[in-house]
Amino acid sequence: MSTSTPWTVVIDDDPTGSQVVHDIEAVFGTDPDSVRAGMLAGGGVCFVLTNSRSLPEAEAVAATEAVAETVLAQAPAGRARLVSRGDSTLRGHVFAEVEALQRVRERMSGRRHDAVLFVPAFPQAGRTTVGGIHRASVDGVDVPVSETEFARDATFGYRSSRMTEFVEEVSGGRISAADVLHLDLDDVRQGPLRVAELIGAAAGRWVTADALEPSDLEAIADGARIVEDSGATIVYRVGPGIVPSVLGIDGVHAVEPAELTRPTGPIVQGLVVVGSHTALTSRQVALARSVHDLQVLELDVPAYVRDVDDRDALLRDLTDRLATALRTGPTMLITSRERMDADTPEASLALARLISSAVSSLVAGVLQVVTPGWVVLKGGITSHDVALHGLGASRARVLGQVFPGQIGVFRAETGPLEGGSFVVFPGNVGTDAALVDTITLLQASHAGAPHPIERTLA
Question: pTM of this prediction?
Answer without folding.
Answer: 0.83
